[in-house]
Write a structure and sequence with these properties.
The complex is a heterodimer of chains A (74) and B (186). In chain A, 61% of the residues lie in helices and 0% in strands. Chain A has 74 residues and is mainly α. In chain B, helix 1 runs parallel beside helix 3 and helix 7 packs across helix 8. Classes of the chains: A mainly alpha (74), B mainly alpha (186). At the A-B interface, helix 1 and helix 2 of A face helix 1, helix 2, helix 5, helix 6 and helix 8 of B.
Amino acid sequence: MNLMNADPPEAAPVDSDEDVVLDPRVQESIGRSLKAHYEDLVTAPIPDRFLALLAQLEATERRLSTEDGANERS
Amino acid sequence: MSAADFKEGLIAEIPNLRAFAASLSGSMQLADDLVQDTLLKAWGNAEKFQPGTSLRAWLFTILRNTYYSLYRKRGREVQDSDGTYADRLATHGNQESHLDLADFRKALAKLPEEQREVLIMVGATGLSYEETAEICGVAIGTIKSRVNRARAKLAELLSIGGVDDLGPDRRITAAVQRAGPETVGS
């Protein structure tokens, strides 16, 4: 009735330095929550201040390199 | 790498930086300040970034160092005064997640920082154990042990130590049925 029964039993966890060995399903559920938590943050809209900051940094660098170029030519 | 390429790379990493910073500091407000500092430092040290290596890992290293040297104390103060972001963040569309996201975040916030950061890096950001070890400046074995301890602590905080605790959720129930009963009660 269960096609998955042919699978070998769960391999022993490699984390032998820990006393607590979590059920793989508990680990899975924590893993999913972790991803949900992170995904929720990662998909939040980026505040404009960061794009403005980087645009400003880039513009400053461009201006400086243009000035350098002008100084070299003069 | 041209300045324009570097800038595009930084922009692409902003969402990850914010998510990691929020996870680390427990506050969106601090997270954004932390990201801003990180971007400024990254820009000022652009020549130290080696093209071909992971920009994300490099930026996480900067962000993490900035956090521990400047923000850690502030983070505690902010949390004390206006609660953690776990209480304030709007959550949207997380029916997929079997554990309530707000509860999970509260538990996550209770973990020691050294455990929380590695759990996030390894479990959610796509960074490898190796990269995480490098970012934190410790051995891979240490990372593995911190991840294990973090998971065990979360399970304890969320009271999901036993399989039965996961019962009410349909997806988990389905997973249990697929896996068969042989490991239950071991």
